[in-house]
Amino acid sequence: MASINDARSKINEIDKEMAELFVKRMAAVREVAEYKREQGMPIFDAAREEEIICRNAELVGADMREYYVDFLKNNMAVSKRYQSRLIGASACANGVTKLHVTLPDGGYDVTVGTGLIASADKYMRLDRKVFIVTDDGVPREYAEAVAAVSADSMIYKHLFTALRIKSRKRLNLHRQAVY
């Protein structure tokens, strides 16, 4: 039997190779995250994960299969955390931040920043429902202009103005539906 140092040396070499493969894998995960963000897809895809586990579990012998499945699941968990970080807070230009909220059946973006109403078409998808929250210092006409951009009569746009009540330090929302 080889010495423990020889075995550890082999493990160290394999770990170096795995680190290189990990970096390549995460580059591919980044591409997947970009696609999912653009398409509004959720990060978690149960069917895809099950397919990968079933297919790849066959690559190892039965005595290692249980451990390899755990290894795959751990890789997937790391990949999902990385995708969440990439999709969850994508910084845009000019101090504007786009947060992606992932739901089981899709997702949506929340765009936060100053001066967004004047350039909404640059930062937001206006081809779907629009939810606008402004403070009471923004003229109503600005928010209404953004709500009016989509000519699709099937899309309802809701204009909300948040009014700050200084004495209570909270926001009240007042709704006006714009069709």
Rg, Å, rounded: 24 Å
**Low-confidence spans:** 151-179
How would a textbook summarize the main sheet? 3 strands, antiparallel
Overall mean pLDDT stands at: 75
- CATH homologous superfamily of the largest domain, by name? Chorismate mutase
Total count of strands:
6
- SSE series: HHHEEEHEHEE
CATH topology label of the largest domain = Chorismate Mutase Domain, subunit A
Label the CATH architecture of the largest domain: Up-down Bundle
Proportion in β-strands: 15-25%
Integer count of domains: 2
Label the overall shape.
Answer: elongated
How many alpha or pi helices?
Answer: 5
Helix content, binned percent: 40-55%
Helix- and strand-based class?
alpha+beta
What is the CATH class name of the largest domain? Mainly Alpha
Instruction: Report, as a whole number of angstroms, the end-to-end distance.
Output: 78 Å
Provide the spatial order of strands within the biggest beta sheet. Answer: 1-2-3
